[in-house]
Known about the structure:
single chain; seven-stranded antiparallel sheet; 16 strands
Amino acid sequence: MPLCVAMAACNGIFGGIYDTVPQEDAYPYGFIETTPTGGTIYVDATSYQRWTYLDFHRQTIDTANIFQDEPAPERWDIALHRYDVKTNGGAAAETDVATLDAVAGATQLALMPLTEDIDTSVVVDMSGMMQGLLERRSSKLNAVLGKWLDVNTSSMPPVYTMSNRIYVVRMADSSFAALQFTNYINSASAKGYITIKYRYPIQ
């Protein structure tokens, strides 16, 4: 069921309120660069009404419309909604290594403390912003993976700061991936276009 939350003022508390209108992008979407052990993913996450599902096992990408109650694909590993991230029964950790290649092997990663998703909600409709209403829908999210981008709304316009950290994700089948979110804008500086460098599978 949709949930509308009244806000005290339309002060841009949620990232994206002052985003540039998306412009046509020259780049393809999905797993655009792949090797047997990793590559690059480019995602159009501009819509508040859609989840984008990534399957690292098959190197595929799919979407589902939240308002139309479209189901998630049968197989997926992580999903993006704007700058929100969730896993499919997995867990994640933030590392202190500088590169994807420096991530430890799977045996060592299995010993790391990992954070599972929690029940919360995401903003799905901004049209009521001027009336102080943001429509939300219940969803699981991963708080650790959500740290990849900080949206500071204490000043206007908001300040977007990427962590540039390497994140480790344990999939539902206990395999591991390493991710680095490297951009949130496209070549026209429109926000919501996410680039992810990844390493999978980690042996």
